[in-house]
Design brief:
This protein is 60% helix and 4% strand. It is mainly alpha-helical. The chain has a domain at 32-90. It has a two-stranded parallel ribbon.
Length: 93
């Protein structure tokens, strides 16, 4: 089987799963509040810019209730930063 065909056979079920999950998440646009939180995250934590934006979006979405919003990531550095901000971390194995 070609690599492209193999990727397509996996992508179909994953696309369907992603579409099903889409209804359960909230997208946070990079507004001023997110940018400001990302700047702070970069000063406080050792993060890449994109990871700081992800953490900032979660901080804005949590609205100071970080303990109530599980944080999902496979990146150890981002998980550590989110944990320090008070988020419970979802461990994926």
């Amino acid at each position: 089987m070609s690599r492209q065909r193999a990727a397509s056979s996996v992508r179909g079920p994953l696309d369907h799963r992603l579409e099903a999950l889409r209804a359960s998440w909230q997208e946070i646009e990079p507004a001023v509040s997110v940018r400001n939180a990302a700047r702070r995250a970069l000063r406080v934590h050792l993060l890449r810019a994109t990871d700081a934006l992800q953490l900032a979006a979660a901080l804005v979405a949590a609205d100071a209730q970080t303990a109530q919003l599980p944080f999902v990531t496979l990146d150890r550095r981002l998980a550590d930063a989110a944990r320090r901000e008070g988020f419970p971390i979802v461990i994926l194995e």
